[in-house]
Every structure is written in structure tokens, then in C-alpha cells.
Amino acid sequence: MIAKDLYNHLEQDFRLSICDDDWSEMQMSSYITEQYQQRYMGLVTDNSDKIDYVYTAVFPSAEVIGKIISDNRKNVLLFLHHPMDFDINRMPVFTDIPLKTLKTFKERNISIYNLHAPLDANGKFSTTCNFAAALGIEMTGEFYKYHKVKIGVIGKTSYKIIGELQKRFENAVGHSVKLYQYGDATINGDKVALVAGGGNDANIYPFLRDMGINTYLTGIARKVEAYPPSVEAHSAAKECEINIIAGTHYSTEKFACIKMVEFFAQFGVPGEFVPGIPCMEDI
After folding, report:
1. 154-182 per-position pLDDT tens digit
2. InterPro entries this protein is in (predicted)?
3. Domains of the chain, each with CATH number or no CATH
4. Residues 127/219, Cβ–Cβ less than 8 Å
């Protein structure tokens, strides 16, 4: 497919014009498009006039990059939810794609496209909507504005007890998740709230309490004494008697990137999701 046509579909379908984002911590080089350096969304590197295959991934981790290079394809698009790799154990937690990788990508006609806030915005392919769907939760509302768009989901679950929902969560992501039980073990009114990724924000919990919701599912929920916002979030959850179930940044956002393979397929471009490794210290 002609690359510009595919990028136009992404631009329009994900409404980049109504979003903003900020990846100013990225190292900007001659490989990065001028447009991306201005708005931090869309085409990161422009290395091919046509796209024959697409890889989707949550982060540009070493595993993801290694898979793409070893496949030895050309005229490829790497679609990323984040333009930088993430590890909560490092400082800074986000790190750049190595320049040598960007050089290799240019030589092999591998372009990079990034949608962070636009993919978080609730919709068919979004992070939280697909996270909810993976847990069998029916969306009934939305909340929590981020970069001008709403990314949180309020939904109905068939589970009555948080332990049962915790098990469903673990089955969906394929590993253990962590429960912080600050409220009643019974899910209030069959309603839960979700924000995929890094959604442990102290401002969320009073809103959920006022909505009659006592169970919140997210990605990152690690309490770090040296990081005051995490301490404040847990204090607010405890005060509001909201249970938190956390399943890592990567695992709660991977469902959107899996779904994105369908987006590209509708334009006749085959592709695959490239798995990463969840950072269990997130929870």
C-alpha cells in the first residue's frame, strides 16, 4: 500500500487533530520527521514509500526490535503505542530507540508510526476499551480526560467478588496481577472502572467513590515512597475504600496493539503483533 495513503487513514481515523501529546524527553535526530518533533504523534521515521507489512507493539523493546530485524523484511511499518521503551526499574523509565537501530531501519526501509494519546482515546481500537473487552466487561460510560481525550472506561461485570475478577484478569494477561484491597470484597453494583497503562492517579478515587464504584483496574500501581504521587494515589484509594487490581503497564495495553492488526488488514496490509515482556515491578 502507498505509505502516505495509510498514514492519512491513521491521521483521520484516530483524530490526531483533536489530541496532543508530549515526548519532549525523546532524543531528536535527523532520523525523526519534522512533524513528529513538533507534535509527538504520527510518523516518527519515514523510510519507505510503500508499506507491505506491519508490526504492532506496545514498546520498542530489544525483543521487538530483534524480531523485526531478524525477519529481514523491507517496506515495513512498525506501529508503536509508545515511541520509547519503558522499564520502571530504570531511571529515566523511558529510553530512546538506539541510533544504530534507527540507522538499520532506514537502510531496510522500515518506518515507525506512533499513536500514544490518540490510541488511548476511547474507541474501537483503544487501550482501555480493549482491556475491558479482554476481561468481559461491558462498557457503560467513560471518564478521566488525558491529553484532551477521555481514556477511562466504566463498565459492567458479571463477577460479584473481586477475587473472581482478579482471576479473570490473570487469565487474560497470562500472569499474576496484584490486588490492593482497600474496600469491600463484593463488587458494588456490578460496576467497575478501568484505565489501561499508568492510571494510578489520586484524583480518580473520589470520583469513583461518588459514582458508587469500589473496584478499579489499571496497569501500574506500585507504591514507591520516593515517588509522592504513588503514595498519594494509594492514600486516596484507601480513604475512598476503592480496591485496586493492577496488571502491569504492558499487559493492560497490549490488547489494543493486538487489535490494531485488524485495522491495517482492512486496507489489505498484513501484519502481526510482536509481544514484549511485562515488568512485574509495575504492580
Report:
1. 999 999 999 999 999 999 999 999 999 99
2. DUF34/NIF3, DUF34/NIF3_sf
3. 3-119 (3.40.1390.30), 121-251 (3.40.1390.30)
4. no
